[in-house]
Design goal:
The complex is a heterodimer of chains A (110) and B (262). Chain A is α+β, with helices and mostly antiparallel strands. Helices cover 18% and strands 45% of the residues of chain A. The termini of chain B are far apart. Chain B has one domain (2-261). Chain B is mainly alpha-helical. The chains are: A alpha+beta (110), B mainly alpha (262).
């Protein structure tokens, strides 16, 4: 009992979402010895990107950024996907909340 | 490691402690006994253990969105519990409703503690096992938890020191704000996994009150303070407050009608 309007809405949603999914660039980051490698990632302005963070340490870490409004616990030996942007040009620091003294990094949007 | 542990644990405990204090003060103002808290606390501890153990696997569920979806759901659940609690507290809580009110408060506390404290469990378990750090991690965590709980006790003492009617009003408003804050934080988690579109910040008040400052953290716990909210967050925040006010108004009407019929 699906109305044509319902189907049209689904189709419209698919049309809006699919290109976005297909084009999202992926950036990778590692946590090793409580350090982010690389410490700096450069991403294009006004573009949504997918950041994949691999935690190579046996201990957990929390990816956190006040400027990016992001927080995610990444267990030891696991990875996490974090979507970022579209953002205005600027520098957006992030850190590992479990080891903030060493685990520091930044997203440079240009 | 010591200072880091203090800050990390304080941040999380503060948020849960503020909610628990407001609910306790509200229960006090409507003369609800505290059975619900003694049920909610052990349930919370067990839930935190299970959740933190399963987090690695859960994170990878739903195409990597599992952690955010669960956390946003926990915050959403607290938000959904707020209107019925407000309605029952402004209404005319009779014995049957009192039991329901206690159950709702207990659930809200459990969801909030699981959301906030699973991270503490993961942190303490992992880093207290690392060589040479155990003492700093435990001492720092105990200190952080102590400061957070003390802040909660202060909030409770402040709220219950007010005249009963004023105390209840302040608690109702505070609970409405906490619920709205939960919704706002939940939407940010869903943006993080692309379940909601990323919002362009409407303003940036980080120069005024930094989210990293103690005041910022306290405002975050009470109001869901966010220095750079998007249009969706602000709209949902406003809608949540309207919903909370409507629930309180319904409760009031219910009480007035029951008083006139008696």
């Amino acid at each position: 009992m699906r109305s044509p309007g319902y189907l049209a809405l689904l189709l419209a949603l698919a049309v809006v979402c699919l290109p976005a999914l297909a084009k999202t660039p992926i950036f990778e980051l590692e946590i090793r010895d409580h350090l982010f490698q690389p410490e700096e990632i450069r991403i294009p302005a006004n573009t949504k990107i997918k950041l994949v963070v691999y935690n190579r340490d046996p201990t957990p870490e929390e990816f956190e950024s006040y400027e990016l409004n992001r927080e995610k616990v990444i267990m030891g030996g696991r990875k996490a996907n974090i979507f970022i942007g579209p953002l205005a040009p600027g520098v957006y620091p992030f850190f590992g909340e479990f080891n903030p003294r060493t685990a520091q990094g930044r997203v440079v949007v240009e | 490691m010591l200072l880091n542990s203090v800050i990390l644990v304080l941040r999380e405990v503060l948020e849960a402690a503020v909610l628990v204090s407001v609910l306790l003060a509200l229960a006090h103002s409507v003369r609800l006994r505290r059975h619900w808290l003694w049920c909610a606390l052990p349930l919370s501890v067990i839930s935190v253990m299970i959740y933190s153990r399963a987090l690695g696997t859960l994170t990878e569920a739903l195409d990597g969105a599992g952690q955010e979806v669960i956390n946003a759901s926990l915050q959403g659940a607290v938000f959904l519990l707020v209107p019925p609690i407000l309605c029952l507290c402004t209404g005319f809580p009779q014995s049957g409703h009192r039991r329901l009110l206690g159950a709702l408060m207990g659930l809200a506390v459990t969801f909030a503690i699981v959301r906030e404290c699973a991270e503490i469990q993961i942190y303490v378990q992992a880093f207290s096992a690392a060589s040479g750090q155990a003492r700093a991690v435990w001492a720092g965590s105990a200190l952080g938890a102590g400061i957070g709980l003390s802040a909660g006790v202060l909030v409770y003492a402040g709220l219950t020191a007010l005249a009963p009617v004023a105390s209840r009003r302040v608690c109702l408003v505070a609970l409405g704000l906490i619920g709205a804050g939960m919704v706002m934080q939940g939407t940010m988690l869903l943006e993080q996994v692309d379940w909601l579109p990323q919002q362009v910040p409407l303003w940036d008040s980080s120069g005024l009150v930094s989210e990293q400052s103690f005041i910022g953290e306290l405002l975050y716990a009470v109001l869901g303070y966010e220095a750079t909210p998007g249009a969706l967050q602000v709209a949902l925040y406003g809608a949540s407050l309207v919903l909370a006010a409507a629930a309180a108004a319904v409760g009031r009407k219910w009480r007035i009608s029951s008083e006139t019929t008696v």
